[in-house]
Design brief:
Blueprint (H helix, E strand, L loop, with lengths): L3 E12 L2 E7 L2 E3 L3 E5 L6 H8 L7 E6 L2 E2 L5 H7 L1 E3 L12 H13 L16 H10 L15 H14 L4 E5 L7 H14 L4 E5 L3 H7 L2 E6 L2 E6 L1 H5 L2 H12 L1
Parallel strand pairs: 4-9, 4-10, 7-8, 8-9
Antiparallel strand pairs: 1-2, 1-3, 1-5, 5-6, 10-11
Helix pairs in contact: 3-4, 3-5, 4-5, 5-6
Length: about 250
Amino acid sequence: MSDFILETKNLTKEFKGFAAVTDVNLRVRRGYIHALIGPNGAGKTTVFNLLTKFHTPTSGTISFNGVDITRERAADIALRGVVRSFQISAVFPHLTPLENVRVALQRKLGTAYHFWKPASTLHRLNDRAMELLDAVGLSDAAGVPTVELSYGRKRALEIATTLALEPELILLDEPTQGMGAEDVGRITALVKRVSTGRTILMVEHNLKVVSTLAGRVTVLQRGAILAEGSYDEVSGDPRVMEAYMGSAHA
């Protein structure tokens, strides 16, 4: 098995003649936290959308575990073990955290769309759901309506529902966006904790979070790769300092 779980070759996306992503060659090493950074408009979210098939590439290829998935449907890619979070928390606000995680776990029962089955059929999932809630620090809030949780705890719940799908590769899109310092620290520690035995590709604007978590960093500018390496390597690159770091600290 290759050291690289995900690879793109010359990945390109054009919208009516505008090149949002151009010839991106990305290699994500298995077992690493890999960060994708860059200024606003650099193409980070477009790359995520291409990887998870919310957009279809104009040209180029995407491989996961050595298999070309460029033309596969989003649902099929998810079944392969590529699971994505979004910038906006995507949980059911009027269900409890326990119920949210159970919904994610239903796929393993084969009853995800069997709406006529009694709720009692889901009780067998409670132990695993509680394990996942405990892993993200939410076991104390298992029975509280999700709408009452803080924003940071909702993001933690989203990570728990992501883990319920047993992904090989987790794509995190701005996991600390809009958070105060306390929640940023909590989510940073959580991502580090759940990364054990998994691979994570994350888009993140907070450079302190990137420096703490990422073993590898790819910098995008105007839809193309500008630099790649460890955080220390890219943060010392004059091109990166001009394109991103300088603007971030201005």
